[in-house]
Every structure is written in structure tokens, then in C-alpha cells.
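Apologies for my clumsy wording, but can you show me some protein sequence, whichever is easiest, together with the matching C-alpha cells, please?
=====
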Amino acid sequence: MNALTVSLSDDAREFVESEATAGGFPSPDSYLQELIRAEQKRKAREKVEAMLLEALKEPATEMTKADWADLRRELDDRIEAQLLEGLNTPCEDVTPEWWDRFRAELRSRPVGEVAK
């Protein structure tokens, strides 16, 4: 990990240290890293929301089996990449083994079938 030095006023430094302690972070660095991750997620959500709103302006079309297969494949690829990198695991219970079982179950269903 690369280092970045940030100059803070005394008040800002005290605030960061206080918030880190109150939030149970092991260090002010950890607190700031979490703030940055939260901002990255917020911006990503904004981008997705803007894309969805833009898509709503277009005429609706029926999803085909190929569309569902493409979505399933993309989801599979994204989650697998995250698990392989050890990043952003949706929850602690989601292990690579769990994902293998989930993927096998998903692939065994006919395209377009929804779980009940």
C-alpha cells in the first residue's frame, strides 16, 4: 500500500482521532480508509442510479433467454473475480466453496427461472 501524507489542522486531527476511537477503528488511518471506501461506494451507487434513470427513458423491451444468460454470466464473473481477489465479499458466510455450490445450483436451473 502506498503512503499519502495529509496535513490537518489541530481541530481536524483531534476530530479524526476521536471518531476513530469512538468507531472502534484501530487507527485514524483505518477510519480514513473506511471513509474513502464509503465515498467510493456512494459514488458507484450514484452512477448506477443515473444509468438506471437513463435506461427508464428508453422504451421497455422484453427480456430474452439470451439476456438472462448474459446477466447470469456477468454476475458469475464479477462475484468470482471479487472472491478470487478477496475483495468486497458480500458477507462473512460467503466463501469460495459456498460460491461454487451457489453457481452450480444457478447453472442447473433453466434460463429465466426464478427461485420461489
